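Field notebook, page 404. I keep forgetting to write these up properly, so this time I am using the form the group agreed on. The chain and the ligand, NAP, are recorded exactly as supplied. Prediction of the bound pose follows.
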Amino acid sequence: MPDNDPQKITVDRQGDLRVPDNCIVPFIEGDGIGPDVWTAARDVLDAAVASAYGNQRKIAWVEILAGEKAYRETGDPLPEETLQTISKHVVAIKGPLTTPVGKGIRSVNVALRQKLDLYACVRPIRYIEGVPSPMKYPERVNMVVFRENTEDVYAGIEWDAQSREAEAVIGFLQDNMGVTIAKGSAIGVKPMSRRASQRLVSRAIQYALDHGLPSVTLVHKGNIMKYTEGAFMAWGYEVAREMFGEHVVFESDGGVEQESKVLIKDRIADMMFQQVLLRPEAYDVIAAPNLNGDYLSDALAAQVGGLGMAPGANIGDDCAVFEATHGTAPKYAGKDKANPISLILSGVMMLEHMGWGEAASSVERAVQKSIANALVTYDLARQMPNSRELKCSEFAQAVLDRLG
Ligand code: NAP
């Protein structure tokens, strides 16, 4: 064991993470399949750290509450203490959460992202050899989606049909803007700001530069929603020019991919769904508003084996929360059946974020080996005729056996 007491991860003045060898990381176990996949992921991450660094490094896990468990124990699905603990510790990881119905909160997940200003949802979509896929050439899919996390119709500003609020908005629009909306309609609002769009796009471009990736594609529906989605694209180009100057070239100016520069291009969202099926190799980093980014990242996850495979992170300027892309899959809750790869690979992203790259790579290799040995959970087994179907905990053991 490292001989000092567990310490918090901190951020220095330059914005770089300072990660102690014996560091505290808060975790939210999650609801539904959360406890199964979290136990599997934690065992694998602990063993990977031990195998990569021996006694030199260790994670001291601290449980924090959210979702149903928090509601049962505290009466609040997202206690203030949970938010404060994540803020203080800078890095956290979570399983999927259920939002208890009628508890004054629309979605625990959305609230968590908004309250901690975790503005970038980062979802790498990469194919692992041997995973069944509906694609002919799934190995050509290798993208990282940066989805804006705080705005758009997804922000939850909406009112029920025939409600006082909806009628007031309809009245206002009719009287002041000359807009006709059917009486009794439900109303939703789609706010999109320069600040939120530009910080997301600049993070995506910085990621491409840091990882030597050739292009960033701004995905939007600006041909129809000109002042929201269209502005997302325009603000994206603006920040690319102003912040990244000589490091970027633009397809719209006739630019092409070239070494040590990032090509900035844009695509209309509906067409992009075709592009990622027909020409996935042409795309590397994608920056998208909230709703389009959500649809696109789930569709891309299907191309590489489904939601059980796709990791994710919610990242802000002050802290980051790593999480599986899938939900609580209630029908598999407590059955030790779900695929834990999504949360395990979210843990890999967390280890990379902490600079513990050796442990991260060893987990990735061990997951690849388990799949190559046809040892998989039910979701992959049902598409792999010669595989051996394992429980969630057995899959974790298969990965543990292949570490190091
Ligand atoms: P879901 O929980 O992701 O499950 C949908 C289906 O996806 C499952 O029935 C299963 O398909 C497959 N799946 C998901 N995770 C899997 C895993 N780890 N291993 C294998 N298969 C997996 O989506 P949902 O049913 O729409 O949502 C259920 C609840 O989760 C809702 O309360 C929702 O709000 C919440 N949710 C939470 C988050 C989050 O915490 N970030 C995200 C999304 C949804 P098969 O039945 O075909 O095997």
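OBSERVATIONS:
- The radius of gyration is 22 Å.
- Residues 33, 37, 96-98, 109, 307-308, 323, 326-331, 338-339, 342, 379 surround NAP (CB under 6 Å).
FOLLOW-UP: compare against the apo run.
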